[in-house]
Amino acid sequence: MNVTEMCAARREELLGMWVERFISSYPLQSAGFMRTSTDPFANPVGQTTRASLGVLFDAVIGLDASPRQVKAALDDLIRLRAVQDFTPSQAVGPLFLLKDILRTALLDPDSAEPKGRMGQSGREELPRARPSAGEILDGCFEAEARLDSLALLALDLYAADRERIFRMRVDEVKRAQSSLLRWAQRQGLSPEGSGNSCSGEGNA
Amino acid sequence: MPKMPTPAELLAATPAFPAKGWMDVKSEIRPGNYCYPAKPDTLLGLGFKRAHAWAPEDQDWNLPANWEDIMYNALKERLDKHRSLKVFMDVCVRCGACADKCHFFLGTNDPKNMPVLRAELLRSVYRKDFTLAGRLLGKVAGARRLDAGIIKEWYSYFYQCSECRRCSLYCPYGIDTAELTVLVREMLLELGLASNWIMDPVSNCNRTGNHLGIQPHAMKEIVEFLCDDIETITGIRIDPPFNEKGHEILFITPSGDYFADPGIYTFMGYLMLFHELGLDYTLSTYASEGGNFGSFVSFDVAKKLNAKMYAEAERLGSKWILGGECGHMWRVVNQYMATYNGPTPPNLEQPVSPITGTVFKNAAATKMVHIAEFTADLIHHDKLNLRPERNNHIITTWHDSCNPARGMGLLEEPRAVLRAVCNNFVEMPEHTIREETFCCGSGSGLNTEEIMDIRMRGGFPRANALRYVADKHNVNWMACVCALDRAALPPLTEYWVPEVTVSGLHELVANALVMKGEIPRTMDMRQEDLPFPDPEPEEPETQEPEEIGTGAATEPKSEEDA
Q1: Which residue, of B467, B489, B510, is where some domain finishes?
Q2: Which of B193, B369, B377, B392 lies in disulfide reach of B188, CB 3.0 to 4.6 Å?
Q3: How far is A159 from chain B (nearest CA, A)?
Q4: Backbone angles phi, psi at B60, to 5 degrees
Q5: A118: distance to nearest CA of chain B, Å?
Q6: In B, which residues are within 8 Å of A172 by CB distance?
Q7: What's the ipTM?
Q8: Average pLDDT of span B236-252
Q9: B107 to chain A: which residues are within 8 Å by CB?
Q10: Chain A residues close to B207, C-beta within 8 Å
Q11: Is B463 strand, coil or helix?
């Protein structure tokens, strides 16, 4: 058994801990609701977080992952957190907390993988040999390096999201008076209408 | 020497959401979570005597010296005037049914955005001043004394409610949070505190007639530009009447349709439809804003702005009023207009469609018909020549705008129209549409750019449902029947579901509408190439004689044009 398999075997537990770290970034009174409601439309923040982290978790522990899917999942997560009143570090920070979770799970000799799982054949599988400490350490470093790549990608996405917001703010102002700008241009006025104002305000 | 913290320590050290009770958590006013204040001149012009200069981020908001008395009296007066307010203050049992129904709570997960807690921001003050238990027991009874911090909290949180009333739908007592929000904003107005994005349009509508304060001559010229565009697209020249007396119908639409993209395309759709029907109507530059910006902040201001619709209908001698695609305009019309400004002027009659003869009994009181009802009736009676294939590149969904859906039950009519003009229609998931529709996140005057982040998270539940149908059914269009939606949804989709275009209903009607004497259509209303342009003319009933034979296939035709 290698590190990827060790983590995959405890996926629900470890992923749950990671999701929990994200949800703890929300207020106490709200976090309970986010944990319990599983309807993606009634609890969109909780469920988006959970679904995205599921994909990212598999990628970090070294399962095969399509880059497109991983990026989409990270995009969903970061797009959400980029507008949620967090500082940038709060928005992406909980990504890093998976490191602690994996280290504790893998390096703590007491937290071995669950024994005697039922295999797909229906027969009880024998616990497979635990990798050596060196192998675990190597696997851990690899997982952490993959997580670092995700964090870098998250930085790109976060910055792009913020830039999009500011561009939208400008576009909205233009859109709100599109036909007025066109009118002003035909009158030979600058869009600012500095000369001859057509608005009631200017004539007031 | 201190050591660099780990990420876990760093995140733990940043001020997390406090574990204290909500009453002990003071609201923070910082850029991005407040609307810019209205200019004192604007408010003074509207008769708000306590208008003053203030800046939300300042410690001192320059409130009048006796502001506590003003607030006490303001609340007392409203408790006497609105029995609903008194009931809403007393009846809530804090069951929490509303809590997770608010899109702002779902998007922000901030407990003060739960409708119950938002109402509690006012209710706690009410308890202190107006209930015995609150007076005697104070905090134990959920009461607190009003202070300047609470005023700031109100300005922040009551401007994070879009008055969509989704929570009211689920409240076992039917507590109308929208009404509470309006009343608190009204009380804040008494201290001279209001948002610029709302009060500027209020002032413009009050003074000039439309929300941008465009004067009649400019407004008429702008409509002429739109008619130029219609001519380019259809080959038909339309010259809509303005302020003319003696027409059967006065048409009033939100002024966003005249000036804002993409509302203008819907407006062009109205004009084309009316032209095709030969409707006897007039536009008005005075009653040129159907939407009622006053309804966001004050019942009195709403009444004043609403009055001009009947005043203009009376002056022009119209028989009834046809209203354009708008949201809150229709809640005001359905719920408040008769009380505000009824009875209707004597020249107004129960609306009857001149094309189908349908009597709009639902409009017996207000004499106002929503254009979705009007067009659905036309389609039902097969009075329109439609070619929905022109919209075949569109896979659309329908966004039920809060006010028409929840405020007047306009659910089936727009869908009937949409199905008739567009072959591909997909509903968003159950519990996110119809009466349970999610708000755009920018209603009730929150449609201002400085709180774009709040709007994005408030609109996330809507976008999340849209995203689902976009991923699953390749939906690339969202139609709606509200001018604020047409302004608010484009940034929302740009952020969350960029592949989706937002439009009004009658933009799609206009695409599909086959007009007598029109040229073969190669462009949609936005003058973008139609992927499925009209074939060589062959339906004899839609062609003028001289055009037969000249209408070549689309490509040669466009070459000729070039």
Answers
A1: B510
A2: B193
A3: 13
A4: -105, 125
A5: 35
A6: 449, 452, 487, 490-491
A7: 0.84
A8: 97
A9: 44-45, 84
A10: 200, 204
A11: helix
At position B123, the amino acid (one-letter code) is R
End-to-end CA separation in angstroms for chain A: 80
Q: Looking only at Cα atoms, what is the longest distance across chain A? A: 87
* Domain-embedded: residue B559: no
DSSP B69-112: HHHHHHHHHHHHH-HHHHHHHHH-----TTGGG-HHHHHH--GG
Chain B residues in contact with A175 (beta carbon < 8 A): 260-262, 487, 490
Closest by Cα among B158, B225, B149, B207 to B185: B158
> Which residue's structure tokens are 């689902």?
B468
Mean of all residue pLDDT scores within chain B:
91
pLDDT in tens, A14-37: 999 999 888 888 776 667 777 778
Q: What is the pLDDT of residues B114-154, one digit of tens each?
A: 999 999 999 999 999 999 999 999 999 999 999 999 999 99
Question: Are B87 and B234 contained in the same domain?
Answer: no
Convert the pLDDT of each residue in A56-66 to its tens digit: 999 999 999 89
Cα of B44 to nearest chain A Cα, Å: 13
Minimum-distance CB partner of A41 among B207, B261, B432:
B432
Distance CA B78, CA B73 (A): 8
Q: Are residues B163 and B209 in the same domain?
A: no
Nearest-Cα distance to chain B for A112, in Å, is 24
| Distance between CA atoms of residues B489 and A166, nearest Å | 16
Question: DSSP readout, B351-415?
Answer: -B-TTT--B-GGGTTT-EEEHHHHHHHHHHTT-S-B-GGGGTT--EEEE--HIIIIIH---HHHH
Contacts of A41 in chain B (CB under 8 A): 429, 431-432, 461, 464-465, 468
Task: For chain A, give every domain's residue range.
Answer: 3-115+131-165
Residues B261 and B120 in one domain: no
Q: For residue B169, what are the domain limits?
A: 18-194
CB contact under 8 A, B468 and A41: yes
Nearest to B222 among A43, A84, A183 (CB): A183
